[in-house]
Design brief:
mainly alpha; N-utilizing Substance Protein B Homolog, Chain A
Amino acid sequence: MSNLHPRRNAREGVLEALFAQEYSEEKPKLVLDRVLDSNPNRKKNSEFIEILYFCVIDNVGWADDLIKLHLQNWEFSRVAQVDRLLLRMGICEIFFIEEVPPKVSISEMVEISKVYSTDESPSFINGILDAVYKDFQKKEIN
């Protein structure tokens, strides 16, 4: 675990907190604090973690609409929960976290899905995020 890149560890912390939040009635900040407290290695990236976590929480509906727009022959309700969270994270990084190149965001979500999700997830996540990124680039140009 300690040989993980600090940002990968941070993103996994965001995933953990978002997953916990889905099943919690507690305030998002409490859930996040618990996740940060459980892994001291994440403390140095707590600012990045907090920005990404709250970005996803604040933009869930919008991110889900973007995901639905790019799903082909697939129901949103059938998308695995971890995949849904990773897609939301990737979308938020692409649109709102300028310090991270979009290709890095996409690659990171794909790599994390290899650990936490199904065998089909990496190519599924790559396809959706790549399509979202292409749309993002078109909007940037216009």
